Request: fold
Amino acid sequence: MLSTEPSTPLVVLDLLGIFVFAIAGALVAVRKELDVFGVLVLAGITGLGGGVLRDVLIDRTPPAALVDWRYLAVPLVAGLLAFVYHPALGKMEPSINVLDAFGLGLFCVTGAQKALDAGLGPAPAALLGMVTGIGGGIMRDVLAGRVPAVFRGELYATPALAGAIVVVVGSYTDLPFAIVAFTGGGLCIVWRLLAIWRHWQAPVPTGPASV
Amino acid sequence: MLSTEPSTPLVVLDLLGIFVFAIAGALVAVRKELDVFGVLVLAGITGLGGGVLRDVLIDRTPPAALVDWRYLAVPLVAGLLAFVYHPALGKMEPSINVLDAFGLGLFCVTGAQKALDAGLGPAPAALLGMVTGIGGGIMRDVLAGRVPAVFRGELYATPALAGAIVVVVGSYTDLPFAIVAFTGGGLCIVWRLLAIWRHWQAPVPTGPASV
Amino acid sequence: MLSTEPSTPLVVLDLLGIFVFAIAGALVAVRKELDVFGVLVLAGITGLGGGVLRDVLIDRTPPAALVDWRYLAVPLVAGLLAFVYHPALGKMEPSINVLDAFGLGLFCVTGAQKALDAGLGPAPAALLGMVTGIGGGIMRDVLAGRVPAVFRGELYATPALAGAIVVVVGSYTDLPFAIVAFTGGGLCIVWRLLAIWRHWQAPVPTGPASV
Reply:
């Protein structure tokens, strides 16, 4: 193993976020009528893709997802569960969307912090925090043959970016990381939940579509 | 050149596998009515994409495909051949699928071994062996605007994973690499050929598709 | 900051190329009716994607686009401009295509040179020069849900490859870099502009499409 074992509570949170993302990804695969392998791959890509992309970009390779076996086991289990129990899970989707918001809040915080740890400046670190949160879902949608949901009005990226910005700004203060992380993650989660509840949409271009 | 020259028989096998994959990729491009450049790119991506993705993930950059000129020359030749002779090659597709199975068996073995050499654990090494075998085809399908065939019932990934697992398990034994490699590659090839011959399909989710 | 500050004139040219590419990418997003976030992402991917892919492949991570804040600011501004002024920008598209040719000529030259600097051989360096020029546009098209324009007859990749080859060949001569760069970039730009003006197309496969 190449990584030092990270502190347990953070890893448990990370694995929970991956689990929820993976369930959401597997349900997309089921609806696209993909086979069991497609379900497992989309579960894994949705749960791990954003973090792997971040790790490749900041040169933390091999990515954590390929060094700690639990990061592979969680989406595998989630994908198999979704393959078998998708009718029940599909009905629970509103609850899954709520959990998904928590995963998003978690990933934007840990992603931004890892980018800062790698020595990146404030703007790229905030960007990579957002990418950690939304990258897996974008890859899932491309592989499933649809334009990423996050580009089509779904208010998903902005809360992740806001949470990541809080972490970056907080790193310039004397505040303890726990407080900064809770503030940033909380902002992302509350914003995302409000967007789901109130059907907030990201603005689309106005005026005649130029041809 | 950054690499030491690898032993010739393995390289010849590798290049043969890339050639067959590239022909298959170029035929997809011809059917999608892409231009000569699209045919060459899909040939190259199909032949080299899985290995390049693996090399990026295990931090063996620049990837072998960018260090040894023969790895670029082979898909170039394959793509040009397919561009000109695609009517004949299209008719030979059953034979190409058989050769493709040999490429798959080869890549899952070499991919898993390279991941082990990079210090990865057993589960990620098996995963990367499979990725080496199927990654290029997935990229080809995404670029050609279709959902990857490997997600739609085609029994292709499982044999590659099985072959890679044999290599990983074998690395914990005292067996010589040649025996382990032939067993793993052979298992993958036979399974894949049986799947083609018997029209075996990967299972799809059952029950009502949740909306 | 991890990079040394590069010399100003080259950076200004680089940023101009990114700006034009980003405008073109944002207009694709507007036409696909993506939201403001989709417009910004496609602007950023189109402007920066080719260079980031090159940097990952030659192990120059974190990529320049994540180290120098100006590389992020430029596509952000371009995307916001296109979001607001797309009706006017859409009408200016012929002019944008001309500027785009200059961006292509610039990127194929700098991309090939950076690959040579990283120790790659002539064929991969030429390939990466072309990838730097066309990679962002391919990623944009995949994310927007369409087969890359560069595969569908548009004569775009060949001029980029030609320009990159000039740079590679020139590196084996005693000619000063400026002369080689102008020759390579100029060849690419003139060829691309002629292709736009004369509606040159890349050849497509002939004969019955094999099924």
